[in-house]
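Sample intake sheet
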Amino acid sequence: MSYKVNYTAKARKDLKNLPVDVAQRIILSINGIRDDPYAHVKKIKGTKRHPLYTHSACEYRAIMDITDDRLLIMVISEKKARLLTDMKKIEETAESVEL
């Protein structure tokens, strides 16, 4: 089964702020996991209500929600960024997106 990939406005903004070649590699990496995403992601510990997942691409990570046949990319950030900062971004994004 192939999952449909959707990006939140925050994730699109994150991609837009990256160099074009890096953004393209991240998009290709995310599209490459569409057939079996659970084999390529890690579950984020401590996520409430609904589990969230992280996928490593280049020097970046994509935080996503996997529901039914959809991958919702919520945040793209540098790996060296603190996970707590990412979680704050996710909470802000989740308020504007129905999971």
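Comment: The beta strands are 4-7, 42-43, 53-57, 60-67, 70-78. The domain at 4-96 is CATH 3.30.2310.20 (YaeB-like fold).
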